[in-house]
Amino acid sequence: MTARAQDWKPLPHAPIATVFGLLEHLRETSGGKEDIYKLGGPLGYELDDLLPVTEAAKQLGLVKIASGDIELTSEGRVVAAAEAPERKDRLRRRLFDLPLLRRIVDALKAADGGRVARKTFLELLEEHFSPSEAERQLGTALDWARYGELFDHDPDTGEFVLAS
Amino acid sequence: MDATAVPAEAARKVLVRLDAVEQLYDRKIRILGPIDLDVREGEFLSLVGPSGCGKSTLLRIVAGVLRPTRGRVFLGDQPLTGVNRSAALVFQSFALFPWLTVVDNVALGLEARGLGVHERLKKAEKYIDLVGLSGYERAYPKELSRGMKQLVGLARALAVEPELLCMDEPFSALDVLTARTMRDLVLDLWASTEVMTKSILLVTHSIEEAVGMSDRVIVLKANPGRVADTVDLGDVPRPRRPDSPAVREVVDRMYTLLA
Asked: Which CATH number fits domain B94-161+173-196: 3.30.450.180, 1.20.1300.10, 3.50.50.60, 3.40.50.300?
């Protein structure tokens, strides 16, 4: 695997549930659009804590952010209104489009039994991030991949495993 | 819900009844009661009030994990003498076992109820799926966000298919965006035909949360804990927007009562 810089676009460290909370908030309280600086206040969020959530929603194609406004995309509107199983289906496709997740899934698909040592990915990430950030990137990737049922981690062997 | 299919609040079967329950500290200082309280079949009941009003104590008495100093507790028409086996608990602090995976944490309560290993896993999978955690079965609690941890707590409680789900400040340790998602999920599950549990007792310090979710809200005052008001919200349709006039009016009334 040779990696170009854009293949390792960092994932923002936001739990999926907070992304859904953001979508629901936008859908209900502002008709799908709001000044981004106004978001923090009523939600009790510091802007620093909110930015990973808005960035995650943006990378997943659920919101657009332009000239200080944050707005639900049409996909974002559908996901905000959907129930849990449909959300998962739709997000699964979006997650697969994120470079880091796609690279891991592609590597697992090419590997025997759909398994690759977690360490392999960590070493690759360490070429682009500090050791602690590489660790966090892989943690967030695994968290999102589990939500989308793309792959899992087998703690007994230390391998990532393609979801069946 | 179809209004014609639902019995009037007062006509519903009583699941748990507290009769003149009192809690004394050191046998002489009254911290709670005397309080009468019915938890009815199929209702979403909330206890709301400031800290020290005894709301969590009441929940623990209903769940049978705490015996009141005085007064009687009934499960149906039988006196409740030990742990209430028809109730399951969700805690603010999640209370997961760190050395167990998600699926093992959820299946744990089923072992205590005497189910075989195959049945336990099947049931655990079902509820993990319902709360949207499928994919995380083999994760350990430390790998999960706080919201995900609380989903495990919720799946574990629902998996034993209790008649009554008792939730003690389940959203308080979560950030606002996560709490919002979780409230919607709990209401969806409560309305879902997949979930057996149809009665919920929620303890919260948030008036908005209680009014947004419940059929009935019992407002408690502190020192000693006592009932200030009972508000029936059965007629207010869901989803309830926080800025709707009906919701605003009830919320304002409760704040006035507690102020």
From this structure: 3.40.50.300
Tokens representing A36 are 């981004």
Q: Is A1 within a domain? A: no
CATH of the domain at A76: 1.10.10.10
Answer whether B157's CB lies under 8 Å from B195's CB.
Answer: no
Tell how strand A115-117 and strand A151-154 pair up: unpaired
Contact between B178 and A17 using a beta-carbon 8 Å cutoff: yes
CB–CB contacts below 8 A, A to B: 78
As for how many domains chain A has, the answer is: 2
Calpha distance B115→A164 (Å, rounded): 27
Residue A6 lies in a domain: no
pTM: 0.85
The interface pTM score, or ipTM, of the predicted complex is 0.71
Token couple for B60: 């623990």
| A15, A22, A45: residue with CB nearest B147 | A15
B145/A143 touch (CB, cutoff 8 Å), yes or no: yes
Neighbouring residues of B145: CB distance < 8 A, sequence distance ≥ 6: A15, A17, A18, A143, B178
Above 60 in pLDDT, residue A85?
yes
Task: Tell me how far apart the alpha carbons of residues B178 and B212 are, in angstroms, rounded to a whole number.
Answer: 16
pLDDT score for B2:
47
The H-or-E segment that residue A152 falls in is strand A151-154
Tokens of residue B226, six digits: 């006592």
Interchain CB distance below 8 Å, B135 and A154 = no
To the nearest whole angstrom, how far is the Cα of B130 from the nearest Cα of chain A? 8
Probe site for chain B from A146, A149, A161 (most B CB atoms < 10 A): A146
Domain that holds residue A149: 98-162
pLDDT (tens digit per residue) in B46-79? 999 998 899 999 999 999 999 999 999 999 999 9
CB A61 within 8 A of CB A54: no
Please name the fold of domain B12-86+198-259: Rossmann fold (3.40.50)
